Structure formats: C-alpha cells, structure tokens
Amino acid sequence: MKKQISSYLEDILKYSKHIVSQSSSLTRDQFQKDFNIQLSLIRCLEVIGEVSKRLRDADSAFYEKYPEIPWKSMARMRDLLIHHYEDANLDIVWDTIMKDIPVLEIKAKKILEEYNAQK
C-alpha cells in the first residue's frame, strides 16, 4: 500500500507541476481562447481529481490525515469536467489553476516528502 500511496502523491505533484508550468505565462484571455491549452490543463485537473478518489479508496485514513487538501473538491471538479463538461465554467477552471493548484503543488510535495521519510 505504501508504494501505491507514494505513487498517487507523485501523480498529484506531477500534474500540478505541469499545470503551474504551462499556465505561468498565460493570461485568462489566452486560456479562454486556446482550446488546446484548455484541453491540456483540464485533463490535468481531471487526473488530479481521479487520483484523489483512488487515494481515498486505497487508504481513507491517509485521506483524512490531511484535511488541508481539498480532496473532495478535487474529486467533484473531476466529476464535473468528465460527466458535465458542457457545464464547465472556464472562469472557475482558470481560478482553480491560478489560485489552488500552486498551493496544492507545494502541499503535495511536502506530504510526499513526509510520507517517504516514514518508509
């Protein structure tokens, strides 16, 4: 199970880093107008949400140990983007990318380091 959780945390970190690096020089307007950029970044959000669900299923105690991570919100966003893509609000997606994902990247890195130190 430890390898599985570590792998999930690595995925969250990898996809968060990708979002941060790809969005760092973007404006909201560029994001709104470029469908390929939307696809790339939204896909990363979908994966992060899916990983959140898998992490919960793998070890709910771990999931609950870090309440500062918005696990449920990440999973809900994934569900919206996958199942109700036509209702996805690009302003909310953009705000998530710019405000929440950089914080998630930092927290995921710290949690992964703590977790690996326990091995």
Rg calculated over all Cα atoms: 14 Å
Low-pLDDT sequence parts: none
Number of strands: 0
How are helices and strands ordered from N to C?
HHHHHH
Average pLDDT reading: 94
How much helix is in the residues? Answer: over 70%
- Summed up, the domain count is 1
Q: Give the CA-based shape.
A: globular
Q: Helical stretch count?
A: 6
Structural class: mainly alpha
Q: Describe the largest sheet.
A: none
Note the gap between the termini.
Answer: 11 Å
Beta-strand content bin: under 5%
Could you give the topology of this structure?
Blueprint: H1 2-23, H2 28-33, H3 35-58, H4 60-65, H5 71-83, H6 90-117
Quick overview of this protein structure:
This protein is mainly alpha-helical. 83% of the residues lie in helices and 0% in strands.
How would you describe this protein?
The protein is mainly α and 119 residues long. The protein has one domain (2-117). Helix content is 83%, strand content 0%. The termini are close together. The model has no long low-confidence stretch (mean pLDDT 94).
Q: Which short descriptors sum up this protein?
A:
83% helix, mainly alpha, 119 residues
